[in-house]
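Preliminary data (for renewal application), N,N,N-trimethyl-histidine complex.
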Amino acid sequence: MEPTLEGTVEVHSYLGPADDRTLADDVLDGLTRPLKELAPKHLYDARGSELFDAICELPEYYQTRTERLILRTRAQDVVARTGAVELVELGSGSADKTRVLLDAMDDAQTLRRYVPVDVSETTVHAAAETLVARYPGMSVHGVVGDFERHLGHLPAALGPRLFVFLGGTIGNFPPGSRRRFLRGLRKVMGAGDHLLLGTDLVKDPRIIEAAYDDSAGVTAQFNLNVLHVLNRELGANFDVDGFEHVAFYDRKRQWIEMRLRATDQQHVRVEALGLDVEFAPREELRTEISAKFTPERLRNDLAAAGLELVELYSDPDELFAVSLSRLG
Ligand code: AVJ
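Predicted structure:
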């Protein structure tokens, strides 16, 4: 615990040495399947995070600026409806959007604590330090952990809490684990708590595909970068130039997929795993799914987890949605 003039900051880590094995485990599991697959979390090494930040500024990638606009317009309403004294942020990577909400709580004079939860210790510390300095009287209780496993370690509530999960990241979960995640969240929520969830909306597939295959090729670089991660972290020898970026919207499943397609036959050795992998010409490796929602799909997912939709905030073009829900 590290007392400061402004408030108190404490950060607790629940990650152990076993958590480092997830890349190796995921690669072994994912590259030996009939449809080769890699979990999207591995896209975000330092370079990948930089490229993702660049994506958020692209003209085609409407999500980040639209969500920010919705939050700016609605933050006051959210705070008035929830009476939240505490902001629990899952995946605390979105500092500027967080500030919009903390500002509104500060203005309403309800703000007491910020609880960032993230797998990256650096991210949690950075969020803690910048924000505690900005809001006098607010304390920060950081949780370094996986929000699918460590939500049991949240500090006891000081009053009504606002849980936030922004950016549309929930779309990365396959349908089953999406509901499992929401159920896990609901279990730690109390009767006075609310969830504020950012989700991308179903729309003209051309708009969605352009957002994931931008004309400057930034998303392609972001996707291909995961091969550099495997080369570096696991001693693999992917020929990155032998793969191309693919993004397509699956209308039936209502999600977009990013894949990497081998342009011709590729033999890859993953030294750290003693694994040899073959790619046939045009064979693809799936690196991300990103689900798009209709209000009905959202309501159903929330209901399946015991949550009730209170309000659905959107932008005039209905590109993106931020939903507010509570225990049903
Ligand atoms: C951060 C997971 C919400 O799915 O749109 C951006 C990541 N992938 N471009 C998304 C991403 C390709 C993004 N999320």
